Queue: 2 jobs
Job 1
Amino acid sequence: MGVTFLKKLDQAVTQNNSLLCIGLDPVIDKLPPHIKNLHKPFFKFNKALIDATQDIVCAYKPNSAFYEARGAEGIAELKETCDYIHDRYPEIPVILDAKRGDIGSTNEGYAIYAFDYLRVGAITLHPYLGGASLTPFLDRVDRGLIILCKTSNPDSDELQSLLHNGKPLYEHVARQVIRNWNKKNNCLMVIGATYPEDLANIRGMTDEMVFLIPGIGRQGGDLGKTLTAGLNTKKRGLIISASRSVIFAGAGRDFADRARREAMRLNDIINRYRT
Amino acid sequence: MGVTFLKKLDQAVTQNNSLLCIGLDPVIDKLPPHIKNLHKPFFKFNKALIDATQDIVCAYKPNSAFYEARGAEGIAELKETCDYIHDRYPEIPVILDAKRGDIGSTNEGYAIYAFDYLRVGAITLHPYLGGASLTPFLDRVDRGLIILCKTSNPDSDELQSLLHNGKPLYEHVARQVIRNWNKKNNCLMVIGATYPEDLANIRGMTDEMVFLIPGIGRQGGDLGKTLTAGLNTKKRGLIISASRSVIFAGAGRDFADRARREAMRLNDIINRYRT
């Protein structure tokens, strides 16, 4: 089965001295003018970003939504992007941000999409249907299953903070994942950078588990508070994801250089908290 | 903006005297041998099923997972399937079963996929991120947003039945949808046929809202109990969805006829409870 997602991630963190993950979330209207009207604009945009940043990230994270918006053509460019990373930079893991979750027999289809068609190392998943429904994902011992726990959006407390036995729902999700869904040591969780106190709360429940942290950059999450709250005792255990603030740092011919500079700036800040 | 999803659904229910929705969920290994090796097997399978059943259903419901499993090619056949229904049988609404749900800016991409690329009338959505995150969907006043409330899988109670103030989570979801998310009268909910008591509970909260009911057929939900619990005072208000038990009723050259017979059988049972 080769190296697991978590092992590969750990190696990339060491090799590139980075906890930074770049979200590859292209939008046609925001692409640099010289890319926008090319054939396969998303792939060309992504390829330039990947080539410019592959030595300073621990992972890439394309979000399926941005590709689906362009239909079959978009999906083909998503595959080409994933294949490019797998072939050219095989040491860098790819996370498919897809937030899937259906009944078991249907999840088989999504698992095939992510793990066999796109060949990504990990996928983000909704917890609402419960752990048993996620079996087709959880059974893939060499992949990473990243369960939504506390999301970064401003109103995520509407359901996620409802109290059951005095504890918020997101904490029950975390407990189920840690105690019951992670039997094969392939689970991670999503916790938004916009909620550092909740992050500290969940870090208190597990030192080992890796958390994917969206919400820095455009969403306004505080990087310092996030790292203080979320780093584990090895000064690891977080995948800090930035999308728009990095990939759209520039809008001209130098967009990839500008993205690299912004990624380095973020990674320098992150690493200050790791020493 | 044309006729809304809910209006079109209501007209199809009247025209075909049917609450039955057929789930178009093809799987290569289960296709009839004479279809399996053709070019565009999913589209050809679906087309035959649609032609054979278009006068006895109220909607079709392709599940995106089965198409994504075949990557860009599968998505192209999903689009061709949707386009075929829109063009040939424009009076029959199409529901995309996709169970999406991300932060707002990302949900824009999914809304474009469903409503502008595939041009479906409705989509299924996860509630976990809260109502505000779903704004890009909820703002589409002419479409249907079908929120997961109580799902049909055997272990759906793991999170959905956690009690908050003495009420299960799924009931809080239902209350939020009914009171706050449905401002534009375009929300529906998913409630599994496998939980008729929960269905009765939620029907008690709203006579108007339409529920999408998966879980009859292979999943074992009881049709009689479901209808008794879920029909509203107009003997409507339900979309009874069957997938595998109908589309794989036969596996030979007569598969579409066999599907039609099974669909008629189900619809006859359903209609007995409506009179």
Job 2
Amino acid sequence: MTTLEVGKRLVELCRAGKNREAQDELYSPDIVSVEAGAPPGQSPETRGLAAVIAKGTAWAQAHEIHQARTDGPFPHGDRFAVVFEYDVTRRADAQRIQMHEVALFTVANGRITREEFFYAM
Amino acid sequence: MTTLEVGKRLVELCRAGKNREAQDELYSPDIVSVEAGAPPGQSPETRGLAAVIAKGTAWAQAHEIHQARTDGPFPHGDRFAVVFEYDVTRRADAQRIQMHEVALFTVANGRITREEFFYAM
């Protein structure tokens, strides 16, 4: 799969709410996932497919998703960007939040090897 | 200026239609600008402030802008992303086009040193 094909498939699966399936199908076992920031003492970086899937599962369990919008993919060489917008309620404190972020994915040999999330904190 | 401050200023100037002023104020003399693609025989890469300003001026002259939308900045470390949407008419063939792209900017010492444009071709 080309970078563009990987990007299109990722967006297709995210739009269907199948983010977990996208990780299984498209992510490298050596995926590195990097947040824009992290609480003090925690790393913004998560390494390896099992840990990245666990991070996604934890996020999904901590939020009730009312609406999600996925724009893209926007390709450039071996990378592509995707724009995500989420309208969610954080279960911990019942606060409703609008999230808007850009994700940058790097592809090698038809698999996503790196994802970086861009957002204001 | 921090990366976030540079990003906010860039978005502010772009929203005011002052893209040229943004280049003067925020770009490094050694700016490198990279398109997602280029016609055969042409480089996607433009180096140096004068050449990058000339590229921007040529684009502005070649298009009539009906509407522009700028979302961001979305920061991550020494980089930030901006989402651009343009509704333009290409003067060469009078074709009306909707453009949607992600731009990724790298900042060093308070100046933008690299811009990369992500879009489908």
